[in-house]
């Protein structure tokens, strides 16, 4: 379609400008369970509820970027969701976990503390 229109003997020039301001992402809060025990599996989802892709997801534990290992996996499920999974929970996994999501509009974070229960064996009486 041409940007030039002819109306009642006058030339009109018009352009349609598609402008959309990048909106900072918003993240749905995630929570670890409160009764976690050694050896269990646990996973949390970082889900973007507002904002336009592309998004960059970054997971942190106690302020340090989380790296995948034999017991920790990170999977970007689709362009709006990232999953952090701990396959075999141990004391080394206790800490404050943060998901940071960034796009052209800015970045947002959500955090939760993973605190594993300590289970002591039943006492034996002699």
UniProtKB/TrEMBL annotation:
GO terms for biological process: homophilic cell adhesion via plasma membrane adhesion molecules. GO terms for cellular component: plasma membrane. Residues 1-22 form the signal peptide. It comes from Nephila pilipes (Giant wood spider). Transmembrane segments: none annotated. Keywords: Disulfide bond, Immunoglobulin domain, Signal. This is Ig-like domain-containing protein. The keyword S-adenosyl-L-methionine does not apply. Residues 25-115 form the Ig-like domain. SUPFAM superfamilies: Immunoglobulin (SSF48726). It comes from the Eukaryota. Pfam families: Ig_3. The gene is AVEN_136735_1.
